[in-house]
Design brief:
With 208 residues, the chain is of the alpha+beta class. The chain has one domain (2-204): 3-Layer(aba) Sandwich (Aminopeptidase). The chain is 25% helix and 27% strand. The protein contains four helices and eleven strands; from the N terminus they run ββββααβββαβαβββ. It has helices at 55-62, 79-96, 143-158, 173-181, and strands at 15-16, 19-20, 39-41, 45-48, 100-105, 111-122, 125-134, 164-168, 185-186, 192-194, 197-204. The strands form two sheets. Strands 3, 4, 5, 6, 7, 8, 9, 10 and 11 form a nine-stranded mixed β-sheet that branches. A hairpin with a 2-residue loop joins strand 6 and strand 7. The longest helix has 18 residues, at 79-96. The radius of gyration is 15 Å and the shape is globular.
Length: 208
């Protein structure tokens, strides 16, 4: 099970070398605030903008060594780090009108994990980075794929000019499968060194 963890990339660019810093958002806002989807739904799942009640789950998931096996730089050791990470996510929502969603089964209060998009720079190109990380009890049920597909579908519709990428550690087979099921394809020419080693890039809507 350790080789198929559904996760991708760092949880947020706010976390650099153990320090919190302000992220760069560029001018990638959903200008019509009515389109700022604070809730998405799929056949099984409900995706909501995180609230402060979700901080405990942020900490629980990011302090589990299994969920951060392939991206240890994402691991949180103190609850205060989860509070700071939540503030970073919330700041993106306030600035951009989109961000990371907390994922639950429809009709349930139990947090399964987190999935969303964040603007970033990749080799001088502005892109949306697709992120997904889920608690271990949610693995192996297609939940990460279903959530990631809902997020990319939303981004394709409301941010159509933006490429979407997923940064995946090569050994993370589960993450690779999620990226493909979300509509992304391998983009070997964008592969490179990430925070925790060499990253494979999956992408959709690349220019040219």
């Amino acid at each position: 099970m350790l080789g198929i963890i559904p996760q991708n990339g760092r949880s947020d660019e706010c976390l650099l070398a153990g320090k919190w810093a302000a992220p760069t958002y560029y001018d990638l806002r959903v200008h019509d605030r009515a389109l700022a989807a604070e809730e998405l739904q799929t056949a099984r799942l409900s995706l909501h903008r995180p609230a402060d009640v979700d901080i405990e789950s942020i900490f629980a998931i990011h302090s589990d060594p299994e969920t951060c096996l392939h991206n240890p730089s994402d691991a949180l050791a103190r609850f205060e780090e989860a509070e700071a990470l939540y503030q970073c996510w919330d700041e993106q929502w306030r600035r951009c009108g989109y961000g990371y969603w907390v994922v639950r089964h429809r009709g349930s209060d139990q947090q399964l994990g987190f999935c969303g998009i964040k603007p970033m720079d990749l080799g001088g190109m502005r892109v949306l980075n697709l992120f997904y990380r889920f608690a271990t009890p949610a693995w192996g049920q297609g939940i990460a794929s279903e959530a990631a597909a809902a997020v990319t579908k939303w981004a394709f519709r409301y941010l159509p000019e933006m490429p979407i990428i997923a940064r995946v550690r090569p050994a993370n087979i589960g993450s690779r499968r999620v990226a493909i099921k979300a509509g992304l394809s391998r983009a070997e020419h964008l592969d490179g060194i990430g925070y925790d080693g060499f990253d494979w890039i999956y992408a959709a809507k690349l220019p040219g």
